UniProtKB/TrEMBL annotation:
The chain crosses the membrane at residues 58-79, 132-152, 172-194, 200-218. Residues 223-418 form the HD-GYP domain. This is Metal-dependent phosphohydrolase. Residues 245-367 form the HD domain. It comes from Streptomyces fodineus.
Amino acid sequence: MEAVPARARGYVAAVALLALLCLLSLPTVRTPWWALGLLSALYTACEHVVRRRFGGTFYPVLLAGAFLLPPPAAALVPLPAALLSPVERAGHRPAPLRRVWRAAQPALAVWGAARVHWALGGRDAVVASDFPYALLPAGAAVLAFCLILAALDGGIRAVALGIPLRRAWRGLLSRSLAPVAVHGLAGLMMAVLWRSPYGPVAALLVLLPMYVSWWIFAQYHRERAAHQATIRALVQAVDIKDGYTRGHSERVGQASVMIARELGMDDDRVEVLRFAGILHDVGKLGVPTRLLRKDGPLTPEERRIIELHPEYGHEMVRGISFLGEARAAILHHHERLDGSGYPYGLVGTQIPECARIVAVADAFDAMTSTRSYRRGRPVEAAVAELERCAGTQFDPRMVGALTRALGRYGWHPTVTADETPYEAQGPQPVTGAPR
């Protein structure tokens, strides 16, 4: 318990006390205890399967309980799962405290959802299978469920980590609303079938397509995690070989995302541009380390070798299908609008759009990063230099997008440490721009 701040323990205790008061409030109608027992057992089984295989939380049964049972009884549904399922220790956080939290938080959320649902006449709509009217109280109940979960999650983050409440709550509701709404619809279908002549057995059939959707969702996230691991391994390998790129790749990815979003690209393309920015220098793995770390000026032959890194990088990632157009950005991010770039001397729109974005992001980070031999330029000076070279070296549209994004959001790179100075050797149109 010593590793958990006292204020966090107090917060969990307060939430648990509030949940207990909700459980003890008198129901206004008779509670069908057999239904409570069946829903509790079903939720415990679902939680065990979902957490073990997918690492998530399964809400349809909880929300079905909110639609079927009085609020105090509905709040009892998640308790057996919290008390019986194993709780792994996370660092020094004690398992009993986590178990109390896992019991109290959903109990409060389900109680609130049931209160809203019953107050809006949802119980009668479910019994009568009155559609579409039944959707209104069910939707309000789902919203209350999400609001309570988000409020409690944000609160524990704020007290445990000492961050401002507004920051702790940011994004919690928006990220959870859509998936919980799907679970709420499944819970409503369960409740209606439960009250129908077909009974609870028919209600259980709703869980089969939900389980299939969870499996598909889990497969997607496993594939996405594999993608991230692949990229992380490549970037770490480059970081080890060339100290300059330590942090540079992530920052170029960050700037590329800012440009892509400012241009109104969809989320899938934004993600691809992030990959392109992160991996744009992966070809340095094929360049001799002695050249990457050379302190003195590069000879023309050595420069030609270093200028092969876009082609090396493209060859390395050619078989990674999920990178899509990011592969073209890796190959062409050193091309220049006037045709003086490399490796192929492409001109204007012959250069792929993604490569033109990464080129601007790459040069911007090169100018604003502090290195061992010089301090980074202010953002305003770097932007002015990009604008000076727009139309000859850089696409003016991409420069304008970055300028607008920086004016709106500022520049807050997550990593700033760079060390190796080789990138600035030799004459360059933009001072400090990467080779």
